[in-house]
UniProtKB/TrEMBL annotation:
Protein name, as recorded: RDD domain-containing protein
Superkingdom to which the source organism belongs: Bacteria
Keywords, in A-Z order: Cell membrane, Membrane, Transmembrane, Transmembrane helix
GO CC list: plasma membrane
Coiled-coil intervals: none
Localization in the cell: Cell membrane
Any one Pfam family match given in the protein's UniProt record, by short name: RDD
Membrane topology: Multi-pass membrane protein
The organism's taxonomic lineage, starting at the top: Bacteria, Pseudomonadati, Pseudomonadota, Betaproteobacteria, Neisseriales
Bilayer-crossing regions: 48-69, 81-100, 141-162
Alphabetical list of InterPro entries matching this protein: Pra-immunoreactive, RDD
Residue span, RDD domain: 41-177
PANTHER family linked: MEMBRANE PROTEIN (PTHR36115:SF4), PROLINE-RICH ANTIGEN HOMOLOG-RELATED (PTHR36115)
Length: 186
């Protein structure tokens, strides 16, 4: 009898999140968007890892460029040869970096970092992979344009991805209407 009384007065369960929710507060479930699609939202640490991998790849290209710049002697080469070597190196490394990233985006729907961290951006409404054009124009170029104008999106993105109430969505996720989820085995 005593147990039956407890069952009758049992409270309705709170939405399932990885965070504790104080009674009486409105909570936004972290995995709400992903859960509707039957997907798992990527952890902020995987997303940070993907950014660091992409930055490491870009830094290696930059170091190679600086090495070539420092090895070309402007005093023994004429100005045209010096500019040709340095500008050519810059353009080749830029094309290499962008080519590799675009290849991964076109083939897998992920950058090199996201591929290695096994995460994937998908459309929030349907859970479908982005086309290469959607990925480049909505997620990459748009945020770079905003970053060049404002300069703060990196800090804002870090806050949004680590916060609880935005489904770990960065500015580019919000603008492109995407979420980043754990990728199925590739």
């Amino acid at each position: 009898m005593h147990d039956e009384g407890r069952l009758k007065h049992k409270e309705t369960p709170m939405p399932s999140t990885q965070y504790k929710i104080r009674p009486g507060t409105t909570a936004v479930a972290i995995n709400e968007a992903a859960a509707k699609l039957g997907l798992n939202l990527a952890s902020p640490w995987k997303r940070l890892g993907a950014v660091l991998i992409n930055q490491f790849f870009a830094t290696v290209c930059f170091i190679v460029m600086v090495a070539v710049f420092s090895l070309t002697d402007q005093y023994t080469l004429n100005t045209d040869a010096f500019l040709f070597i340095n500008l050519g190196t810059f353009l080749l490394l830029l094309l290499f970096y962008l080519g590799v990233q675009l290849h991964f985006i076109r083939r897998h729907g992920q950058t090199v970092g996201k591929r290695l961290m096994k995460i994937l951006p998908v459309l929030e409404a349907t859970g479908e992979r982005l086309t290469a054009a959607q990925y480049v124009f909505k997620r990459e170029l748009l945020i770079y344009a905003i970053n060049s104008l404002v300069g703060l999106p990196i800090l804002i993105n870090a806050f949004l991805v680590l916060s609880r109430g935005y489904n770990r969505r960065s500015l580019e996720d919000m603008l492109a209407k995407t979420i980043v989820v754990d990728a199925p085995d590739h």
